[in-house]
Amino acid sequence: MVVLRRAYPQGVFMPFTFIAPYRVRYHDCDAYGHMRQANYLRYMQETAVEASAAVGYDLLRYNDLNQRWLIRETHIEFIQPLFFQDEFVVKTWVAGFRRIRTQRHYEFYRAETLVARAYTDWVLIDLRTRQPVAASQQMIAAYARGEPFPELAAHSRFPTPPPPPPGVFRERRRVLWEDIDTEQHVNNARYLDFVADTAFEVSAFLGWPLERLRREGFIIVMRDQHIAYKQPAVLGDELEIATYVYGLKRISGTRFFNITRLSDGALLAQVHSGLVAVHPQTGKPTRIPPHFISECAPNLVLG
User: Fold this and answer.
1) 20 to 30 A from 2, CA-CA: which of 44, 138, 172, 242?
2) Please, what is the angle between helix 190-205 and helix 37-54, to 10°?
């Protein structure tokens, strides 16, 4: 792992970049042979923790401060898949601070090829009050490494989906021990596991299990994920995941997920997943068959 200065034109802010090398492990991969999308978030999280420690803010120091950075929103774009034994690096840097939040950016490279990029919005929390607090000037200076940050732009509004169609698919699941991290709530990456499972469930429910998709000459993959975390889910919570597709075009669309807690109806997370149809052998985009659209129409916002 190394820390370096990114090359920018003179007069442009140049954040320090932390680089961590990894190798795709066999259990990182899904049935397509691709690294699971949730694992990109896990590597982002791991790299962010190490990058923070590199500037003097490891977990022990945050424990002493009774503070913790929690993710409020993540956007990740998948450009090319990673496969078993691929070697890749994650580059990360902090883009700036704005009162109680910061934004961290990430890039995934296989050799010199950019295969994914992402950002996360983080909010600093006081662990005693569970309320947001502003980062100290000492903390900001540690991350800036001697160069002042530009102030972050105001936070943009999370996209509002269109009204749902009649056939919203709903699935329930209970939060299990394996879902919980050291913060005693569902880890942010697990939400991508949840929505991936639900996407396959709704496809099978509508008569399009994976085997049929392959026979018809296409599969559906996620090209990007935009996640907003509203409230934490904890061990034993019963969740409802509601989902439907909007903005469907010849080869692409967006699947929206709304995750709530059944006991009180609290909104926990929302996810916009960009979809693209690709050929199962070549991985190249291909047209979605008209009969797929007609058979899945109850779960689609058309027009």
Assistant:
1) 138
2) 170
Mean pLDDT per block of 10 residues along the chain (303 residues) reads 43 71 96 94 96 93 94 96 97 88 94 96 93 92 78 78 96 97 93 96 96 95 96 96 96 97 97 96 93 96 85
- Domains along the chain with CATH numbers: 1-156 (3.10.129.10), 158-303 (3.10.129.10)
pLDDT the model gives residue 150 = 72
Residue-level pLDDT at 15: 67
Chain-centre distance for alpha carbon 226: 6
Tokens of 169: 């698919």
Nearest to 38 by CA among 253, 245, 195, 242: 195
The C-alpha atoms of residue 17 and residue 6 are separated, in whole angstroms, by 6
- Where in 186-298 does DSSP place strands (E)? 219-229, 238-246, 252-261, 267-278
Element (H, E) at 210: helix 210-215
Q: Can you give the pLDDT at residue 264?
A: 97
Whole-angstrom CA distances from 55 to 58, 109, 142, 154, 283 are 8, 23, 6, 26, 40
Residue type, 131: Q
User: In terms of Cα–Cα distance, which of 173, 183, 175, 154 is closest to 69?
Assistant: 183
Q: Distance between CA 5 and CA 150 in Å, rounded? A: 16
Q: What is the DSSP string of 84-99?
A: TT-EEEEEEEEEEEET
Question: Which pLDDT does position 303 carry in this prediction?
Answer: 72
